[in-house]
């Protein structure tokens, strides 16, 4: 996608604070963190949302979660972290390239609101 912010980050066209990479994923710090650890994990290939990714590349879908766990562990939160997918504008998705939020480093209440 020519105008996709996360595709440009994956391609190295836009700088980001990258904390972890794999063959299928790139993880970088969120510019508007909602917790002391707030990292986004994205697939290298463009998919608009989590359901589209799961249908189109289930291996990459699973790798997002394993990458998120590696990031949480590296950030010092191996046992207490939250993973969030927002799908659609009504759920808060603002960049329409699948991304998994990794949140940790503070108490995360429920419901998330």
UniProtKB/TrEMBL annotation:
Any Pfam family matching the protein: HIT
Domain of life according to the entry: Bacteria
Motif Histidine triad motif: chain residues: 97-101
Protein's recorded name: HIT domain-containing protein
Active site residues per record: 99 (tele-amp-histidine intermediate)
Signal peptide: none
HIT domain mapped to chain residues: 5-113
Recorded GO MF terms: catalytic activity
PROSITE patterns to which the protein is assigned, alphabetical: HIT_1, HIT_2
InterPro entries linked to this entry: Histidine_triad_CS (IPR019808), Histidine_triad_HIT (IPR001310), HIT-like (IPR011146), HIT-like_sf (IPR036265)
């Amino acid at each position: 996608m020519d105008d996709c912010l996360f595709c440009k980050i994956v391609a190295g066209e836009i700088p980001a604070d990258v904390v972890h990479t794999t063959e299928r994923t790139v993880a970088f710090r969120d510019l508007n963190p909602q917790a002391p650890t707030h990292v986004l994990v994205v697939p290298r290939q463009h998919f608009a949302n989590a359901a589209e990714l799961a249908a189109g590349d289930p291996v990459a879908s699973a790798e997002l979660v394993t990458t998120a766990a590696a990031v949480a562990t590296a950030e010092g939160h191996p046992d207490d972290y939250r993973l969030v997918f927002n799908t659609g504008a009504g759920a808060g998705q603002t960049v329409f390239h699948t991304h998994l939020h990794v949140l940790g480093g503070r108490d995360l209440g429920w419901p998330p609101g």
